[in-house]
Amino acid sequence: IARLWDYLRFHLVTLWLGLRLPRPKVILAPSPPLTVGIIAWLLACWHRVSFVYNVQEIYPDVAVQLGMLRNRAVIGVLAALERFIYARAHKITVISEWFRRNLLEKGVPPDKLVVIPNFVDTDFMYPRARQNDFAQQQHLLDKFVIQYAGNIGLTQDFETILAAATLLQDQPDIQFVLVGDGARREWLAGQLAQGLYPNVCLLPYLPRSVIPDLYATADVCLVPLKAGTASQTFPSKIYTIMAAGRAVIATAEPETELAWVVEQAKSGWVVTPGLAADLAAAVRQAYQQRATLNAYGSAGRAYVVAHHSRQAVAEQYAQLLQVLTR
Question: How far apart are CA 326 and CA 321, in angstroms?
Answer without folding.
Answer: 9
